[in-house]
Structure formats: C-alpha cells, structure tokens
Design brief:
13 helices
Length: 370
C-alpha cells in the first residue's frame, strides 16, 4: 500500500523538479551540467512511472515481451545513476579532465545497459519467449546480478563523492544538498539487497514479497532524498529572492514616512502598493537601496530625535514617530544621537525590517522633551 502511494508521489515530485529545471535550461541551454540535471529528473520520473502497476501493464503490452517493463525500468535506473555521476563530474572537475571522465562514465554506463539488453534478448530467444517466465537460469541470474552490481557500485560511488565534496563545499546550500544526496544514495542500497535476494529466491523458492516491498520503500525514499538534494543548490537563490521581496515590502511603511518628510532621499519616488507588489526583478539591489534610503532619512531626522542606543526596534520606531511629528518644533539640538542598528548593510536590513514592522504598528510616539 505504501509503495502504491510512494512511487506515484516520487514520479510527480521528479516531474515538478524537471519542469522547474527546464525553466533554467531555457535561459542557459548550453550548460552541460544543467542538461544532465534535467536528465536526472526525467529518468527518475519515467522510472517511477513505469513502476506503477497500471502503467507497467501498458508498457509490457507495448514492448510485447514478458519482462519488458522490468528491462525498461532497470535501464532507466542505470541511466539515472550514470547521469548523477556525470553531474558530479561537471560540478567538481574542470576542463579536459571533466570531458574525459564524462566520456568514461558514458561508455561504462552504456556498456552495462547494452549488456543487459543483450542478455534479455538472448535469454528470451533461448527460452522461446514463452510466458510467464521472465528469463530462465542462467540468464535471469546474469541479468539481475549484473544490474545489482552496476547499480550498487554507482550508488556507493555517488554517496562517497557527495560526502567528500560536501565537506569541502563553501556554499551552505550546496553542502546541504550534497549531504542529502549522499544519504539518499545510501538508503537506496536497501533495494540492492532485496534484488540480490530475488536471485536466491529463484533457486530456493523463498518468498520475497515482503522483502521486495521493504526494498522498494528504501529505494523510493532514497530517490526522493536524492531529488531534494539535487534541487537544494538551485533553490537557494530563489530563497534569497523571496527574502528580499518580503523585506522590501516590510520596509515600505517606514520608507514611505521618511520619503514624505525628505523626498530627496529616494532615487525613485514612492509608487502605489500594487507597483511594489508587482516589482519582482533585482530584489536584492532594490531592498538594499531601500535600506540605504531609510538610513539617509533617519540621518536627516536625527536633530529631532532623542538619544537611545538600547537596540530595541520598538523604541527606535517610537523615536522616529516622535521626531517626524515634531521635527518643526523649536528647542531641539542639532547634535545627532548615537547611531543604533546594524554594523553592515545585511545587519542594517534585518534591524530596519524590525523597526519598520514596529513603526507600522499602533505604537504611540514617545513624548518629546522640550
């Protein structure tokens, strides 16, 4: 029952990842690593799709041979692990050395797939292709053990490479992604164990129904983790964009109030809220510019602000409200109080977002001392 839900979910998840990455590929169609990553998602999606029983029957009917669905599925899995190794090569190797390693992986993977197909064809011819037998020994043993050996070696290599390069990765999201792929590759080895057990079961009559379900569970969860790991490095820039978009809007109330008091601080004048909501390009630049313009407004407002350095955003918002309300009142010193907030643009952004949220609340202005 779990497998019946897990495999379609994995196929849909891989399909969503493929669509997401195809959008990137349209902008950079000559990136071989990106092409390979799209193949990873496509092979995963097709592999899990043909494993769904209803689809498996259609594939078997189209192929016209008993066991044809299993052959298609195993070849897709080997295509997947080959593409994953090539992807790691592109990510970790440069120049001619990368091309040489890619061709080596292609030759090894292609040879294994060709060998399995030949084993299946020869085995079917030797047995007369009679149903319901998939393959008679020794062809069944040769096919399944050859597949398990190639698959296991590839997954171990993927896990080792991801773990090794993940420890040295400088980018946090890349490091997290590689570690996630390594865990997923290790989990899929549970499927290797049960597949090898199928060979033993063919000679001893051992019932592998439960074991195959467990192996499929490990394989499905491991594949989903690998897909997640491959997606994480690419999602990180999107997460940064989303944070910039959110902070850009959160800074708007404070920025508008300061622009109204000092219009010269804004390079572009205030726009309607809808225009801000629809502004989706260059969010990092726009947000940092808004931070700088707010700081310019607070700097101009300082002669009218009471001192305070308690780093409390609510207190800072109250001081700004009081200063805006009374900046024309006499009796204020021209001396600026100590600056509060961050020590760089990033910490300033975090600080001013908190101040702007407090400023936009119903917080009353502090009483101005005259």
């Amino acid at each position: 029952m779990i497998i019946g839900v897990l495999f379609p979910f994995a196929a849909v998840f891989a399909g969503i990842g493929l669509v997401y990455k195809l959008g990137h590929l349209r902008r950079n169609p000559r990136d071989p690593a990106l092409v390979t990553l799209c193949l990873v998602f496509a092979a995963t999606m097709l592999g899990f799709t043909v494993s769904v029983p209803s689809v498996a029957k259609l594939v078997a009917a189209a192929v016209g041979l008993t066991g044809g669905t299993f052959v298609v599925g195993t070849c897709l899995v080997l295509l997947l692990v080959t593409c994953e190794q090539i992807l790691l090569t592109y990510w970790t190797t440069d120049g001619r050395d990368a091309k040489r390693k890619v061709w080596t992986r292609l030759l090894i993977g292609g040879s294994v797939v060709l060998g399995l197909i030949l084993t299946f064809v020869v085995g079917k011819h030797a047995t007369g292709g009679r149903p319901p037998v998939f393959l008679d020994p020794p062809f069944f043993d040769s096919y399944l053990l050859g597949y398990v050996a190639a698959y296991t070696i590839a997954e171990i290599r993927i896990a080792r490479l991801c773990h090794r390069h993940g420890r040295n990765a400088e980018r946090r999201w890349l490091r997290l992604g590689l570690f996630t792929v390594a865990i997923g590759a290790a989990l899929t080895l549970g499927n290797s164990v049960t597949r090898a057990g199928d060979v033993l079961a063919a000679h001893t009559g051992l019932d592998m129904t439960v074991a195959d379900q467990i192996g499929g569970l490990f394989g499905g969860i491991g594949a989903i983790l690998k897909l997640t790991g491959w997606l994480l490095p690419g999602i990180a820039p999107s997460a940064g964009w989303l944070a910039g978009y959110r902070d850009h809007l959160r800074l708007r109330p404070l920025w508008l109030a300061l622009c109204e008091a000092y219009p010269h601080i804004a390079l572009d004048g205030p726009k309607p809220l809808l225009a801000d909501l629809l502004s989706v390009r260059d969010m990092k630049f726009k947000t940092y510019r808004r931070v700088i313009e707010i700081r310019d407004g607070i700097l101009a407002l300082r002669p009218y602000m009471d001192g305070g350095d308690d780093q409390d955003p609510r207190a800072e918002a109250a001081r700004i409200k009081a200063a805006l309300a009374s900046r024309q009142a006499p009796g204020h010193s021209d001396e600026s109080p100590d600056r509060v907030g961050g020590t760089d643009i990033a910490s300033d952004r975090r600080w001013l977002v908190q101040v702007s949220k407090a400023f936009d609340s119903k917080l009353p202005a502090l009483e101005v001392q005259r």
